[in-house]
Amino acid sequence: MTTFRFRKPSALPGFGLTLGITVAYLSLVVLIPLASTFLKTATLDWSQFVRAVASPRVLASYRLTFFSALGAALINAAFGFLLAWVLVRYTFPFKRIVDALVDLPFALPTSVAGISLAAVYAGNGWIGQFLEPLGLKVAFTPLGVLVALTFIGLPFVVRTVQPVLEEFEREQEEAAACLGASRWLTFRRVVLPAALPALLTGFALAFARALGEYGSVIFIAGNVPMKSEITSLLIITKLEQYDYAGATALAVVMLCVSFLMLLLINTLQWYLQRRTSRGASSGPAAGPGTDDATRVALAGGAQ
After folding, report:
1. pLDDT tens column, 252-274
2. What is the dihedral of CA 41, 255, 241, 219, to 10 degrees?
3. CB under 8 Å, gap of 24 or more: what pairs does 183-187 form?
4. Which residue intervals of 27-109 are DSSP H helices?
5. 3-class SS string, 111-145
6. Do 117 and 216 form a contact (C-beta atoms < 8 A)?
7. Of residues 199, 210, 206, 174, the one with CA closest to residue 85
8. What are the structural domains, with CATH classification, of the chain?
């Protein structure tokens, strides 16, 4: 007797249709614009391409852009983790206001952020008037670029790490304390491995956001060639000069380097997640509980 099996109903369309919609959407939004950038750059021969992307002025903008973005992402990774920890673990007055202020760089127009930072850190600003007598000038210097990129990248780290800390089981810390671990060892071997993948994700997002920032930087950087000029400003300058091929050449270089660095960070994140999952599953044959997993982590730290 022949039996027929019917596919279970689903709220979403089938795999083929879903995949087609996804590919079409990504093509229209991401792939086609990026392909047009590469095609426009292909109108240059090799010597023209090298002159466009490797002149001394362009190389100086690369150094400022990438090192400032990397420095801002590292600062945000450290202080963003601390801020997320405070928001999750402690109760204090005006906590909701502080939590809402974290998202302010998301909603604030970048030009407004740049003007505000320039006014605050200028020589006669609220903060700048105290820093300049100490020989520390922020506004209209490369240091101002770092400050602006740190400002716009902080929410990415906080909002990525905060949910992980909220879901972290406090029993693991208590078990580590019962096993005689110090606070630093508990943090290093129990808390940090659980939060590290999310912290790397926040770092990557803050770094990528900083690489493409324009509005908040140009108001505080001073935009001095060879000193405080970022690559995004050079791209805009070439577009204003109708040098579309040169602008797309710079865009291609930024795109390729950014993609390689993000790929490296994501690979490291995948490796850490896999290592953490292996460490959690290396307990007794019956499967480790909270105490067993904590014991395994602390034993790894003692080796």
Report:
1. 998 888 888 888 888 887 887 77
2. 180
3. 185/298, 185/301
4. 32-41, 46-53, 56-89, 95-102, 104-107
5. HHHHHHHHHHHCCCCCCHHHHHHHCCCCCCCHHHH
6. yes
7. 199
8. 45-280+289-302 (1.10.3720.10)
Banded pLDDT at 176 (limits 50, 70, 90): confident
Among residues 63, 114, 98, 136, the alpha carbon closest in space to that of 216 is found at 114
Please give the Cα distance from 228 to 217 (Å, whole number).
Answer: 10
The separation between CA 258 and the C-alpha centre of its own chain, rounded to angstroms, equals 11
Q: What is the CA radius of gyration of the chain?
A: 25
Q: Give the C-alpha separation, 30 to 39, whole Å.
A: 14
Alpha carbon of 254 to those of 93, 116, 211, 234: distances in Å? 44, 28, 8, 12
**Residue 123, Cα to own-chain centre: how many angstroms?**
30
Q: How many residues does the chain have?
A: 303
- pTM, two decimals, is 0.81
Question: In this predicted model, what pLDDT tens digit does every residue of 202-260 receive, in sequence order?
Answer: 998 899 889 888 888 999 988 888 888 999 999 999 999 898 998 999 999 988 888 88
Distance (Å) of CA 11 to CA 8, 18, 26, 113, 295: 10, 12, 22, 43, 43
Residues 6+ apart with CB under 8 A from 201: 160, 269
**Nearest to 276, CA basis, from 221, 211, 201, 195:** 195
How many C-beta neighbours within 10 Å does residue 171 have?
12
In tens, the pLDDT along 124-161 reads 889 988 988 888 889 889 999 999 999 999 999 999 99
